[in-house]
Amino acid sequence: MSNIRTGTGHTMEWRDTAETLLEALIPDDIEANESTEQVLARVEANTQPDVGDAEAFSGAELRKAILTLKQRKCPGLDRIEAEAVKCAYGEIHGDLPKLYNGCLEHGVFPVRWKVGSIRTLLKSPD
What we know:
This is Reverse transcriptase. It comes from Odynerus spinipes. By secondary structure, the protein is mainly alpha-helical. The protein has helices spanning 14-25, 36-45, 59-67, 82-92, 96-106, and strands spanning 5-6, 9-10.
């Protein structure tokens, strides 16, 4: 890791460089110094969403969803293809309802599940 410019000069050693980068990229979490936007983000992050009367996922419902995944389609951001999920289903089928229903019960779903990627694939030159 090379040196970087700071407000008072340059870092001379890798430890100073790493420390400077960490301070800049990951500042201390001091609530007293937060902007209104940061306060609202903190409140929202600590507020459990209302899932209302959502019904629990059944094993049969999850099985149907997995078995109807289309093969030879582009995988998600995790790069796990539908064929792999179908093959793994026999080993993970008992844990899936626990996982999904735990997320539903607590009103928290991993951020990665909420992210998608849209790609345009041209089928012909026209």
